[in-house]
Amino acid sequence: MKYLIRSGHSQHFWVNLGGFQLCWWCAILLADSSLMILATLLILHLLFHRHPVHETVVLLSCGLTGFAVDLLLTATGVFRFGISAFPPLWLLFLWFCFSATLRQSMTYFRGRWVLAAICGGIFGSLTYIAAGSFGVVAFGLPLIQTFLLLMLVWMVLFPLLLWLSGQQFSEQFSDAT
């Protein structure tokens, strides 16, 4: 087991991408019941990452940034999560899971900012539309307006998260972990 810890297995493209797909489906299909699964997958990602401390900083900074955007969209009525005025906790965990892809399976987009904006705008917004079709989020605007607004948000957000994930938060993180 000690040879698996910090082995970098969670950084392999297909493992990372498949892991995120598992997280997304668990979150969408199980909602609040997915929290333990998502937490376990995040812990495994960090255990099998070559630089777990730096990756933790990336997960926290990028995940909280994305969740803050969803919090703003919820506060303005674009998103509705039942009777709650706040996005659910599983969505925060899903943001941490998505952040785990930024330095692994999404690294192709780093430095390709226009492509990242276009793909982020299209596919980022489509994930919310898909989640809406499963009933885990409702929209306060008509579907086409929601899609266009989310496209604009994701055209900025995805490149921002890629840039943020590529930052060296301190010399300590880049060398020691």
Task: Note down, in words, how this protein is organized.
- It is a single chain.
- It is built from seven helices and two strands, in the order αααβααβαα.
- With 177 residues, it is mostly helical.
- It has one domain.
- The protein has a two-stranded antiparallel sheet with strand order 1-2.
- The C terminus is likely disordered.
Describe what is shown at a glance:
This protein is 66% helix and 2% strand.
Secondary-structure topology with pairs:
Elements: H1 13-30, H2 35-47, H3 52-75, E1 79-80, H4 89-99, H5 113-133, E2 138-139, H6 143-165, H7 171-176
Antiparallel strand pairs: 1-2
Helix pairs in contact: 1-2, 1-4, 2-4, 3-4, 3-6, 5-6
Structural class: mainly alpha
Q: Largest sheet, order of strands side by side?
A: 1-2
Question: Shape from CA axes?
Answer: globular
Discrete helix count = 7
What's the number of extended β-strand segments?
A: 2
- The domain tally reads 1
Ends distance: 19 Å
Bin the helical content. Answer: 55-70%
What is the CA-atom radius of gyration, in angstroms?
A: 16 Å
Protein traits:
single chain; 177 residues; mainly alpha; two-stranded antiparallel sheet; 7 helices; 2 strands; 66% helix; globular; disordered C terminus
